């Protein structure tokens, strides 16, 4: 177990111990405090990764290589987008039905279908550009 994980475990144990001592009326404050600490940890981790990634890109550019290529669209991204859109379709459909009945439901699903078509078309365009450009190492 890493030292950072041990620190977070200590924080969780302290939060649970405080909950037992203070009672349920302080639950939300204790949870907010703990989540704030977790968020700080995540922000620190993301900042470190972003700085490392930016430094790597700067080194590549400084060595005279071409600038890094943009992130390409993959099957996993498209699949994830489809799954997320279906998950979000449930509450959006409910909101559409409650507010406007059947026309609201139809409008909601038309929007969901349009967003997924746009995402699929975007992926197809990136795929064609990659084929035209050829393999990355031929540049």
Query: What percentage of residues falls in helices of 4 or more residues?
Result: over 70%
Number of strands: 0
Radius of gyration: 24 Å
**Largest sheet features:** none
> Secondary-structure element order, as H and E?
HHH
Helix tally equals 3
Shape: flat
Mean pLDDT: 80
Low-confidence stretches: 132-139
Give an overview of the whole structure.
83% of the residues lie in helices and 0% in strands. It is built from three helices and no strands. It has helices at 3-22, 27-62, 75-133. The longest helix has 59 residues, at 75-133.
Which features does this protein show?
139 residues; disordered C terminus; 3 helices; 83% helix
Write the layout of secondary structure elements.
Blueprint: H1 3-22, H2 27-62, H3 75-133
Helix pairs in contact: 1-2
Short précis:
The chain has 139 residues and is mostly helical. Helices cover 83% and strands 0% of the residues.
């Amino acid at each position: 177990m890493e030292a950072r994980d041990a620190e977070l475990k200590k924080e969780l144990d302290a939060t649970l111990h405080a909950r037992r001592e203070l009672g349920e009326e302080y639950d939300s404050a204790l949870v907010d405090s703990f989540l704030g600490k977790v968020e700080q940890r995540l922000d620190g981790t993301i900042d470190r990764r972003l700085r490392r990634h930016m430094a790597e890109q700067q080194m590549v550019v400084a060595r005279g290589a071409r600038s890094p290529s943009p992130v390409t669209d993959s099957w996993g991204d498209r699949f994830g987008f489809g799954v997320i859109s279906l998950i979000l379709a449930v509450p959006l459909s409910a909101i559409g039905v409650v507010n406007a009945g059947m026309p609201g439901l139809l409008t909601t699903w038309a929007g969901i279908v349009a967003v997924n078509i746009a995402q699929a078309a975007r992926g197809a365009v990136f795929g064609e550009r990659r084929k035209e450009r050829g393999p990355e190492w031929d540049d």
